[in-house]
Amino acid sequence: METVHIRVNGREIEAREGEMLAAALLRAGFKVFRKSPGGSPRSLFCGMGTCFECLIKVDGSWVRSCITPVREGMEVEVEED
Ligand code: FES
Q1: Does 66 sit in the ligand 1 pocket, CB within 6 Å?
Q2: Per-residue pLDDT at 81 exceeds 90
Q3: pLDDT in tens, 26-76
Q4: Strands 75-77 and 3-8
Q5: What's 40-57 look like in SS3?
Q6: How far is the CA of 23 from the centre of ligand 1 (A)?
Q7: pLDDT of residue 47
Q8: So where are the chain's domains?
Q9: Which atom of ligand 1 is the closest one to the Cα of 43?
Q10: Class of the CATH-defined domain 3-77
Q11: What distance in angstroms lies between residue 22's CA and the mean position of ligand 1's atoms?
């Protein structure tokens, strides 16, 4: 399996070509993807594209990270503490 490189909050991480973004983020140690308007942490929940809990900003647009495959050069923004 090929390795691709994505940037998360400006930091480069390695991912496996064809894997979903949520899997790459969790493996890299990102447990929280964003915060709700009330400040609650949000991350992977259903893992199959139905709940929208895993929304994350990629190249300026919101995507469901559990059904979005990684691609070389992807720019990802997560809300860190
Ligand atoms: S975890 Fe439910 S849509 Fe991604």
Answers
A1: yes
A2: no
A3: 999 999 999 999 999 999 999 999 999 999 999 999 999 999 999 999 999
A4: parallel
A5: CEECCCCCCCCCCCCEEE
A6: 12
A7: 97
A8: 3-77
A9: 1
A10: alpha beta
A11: 9
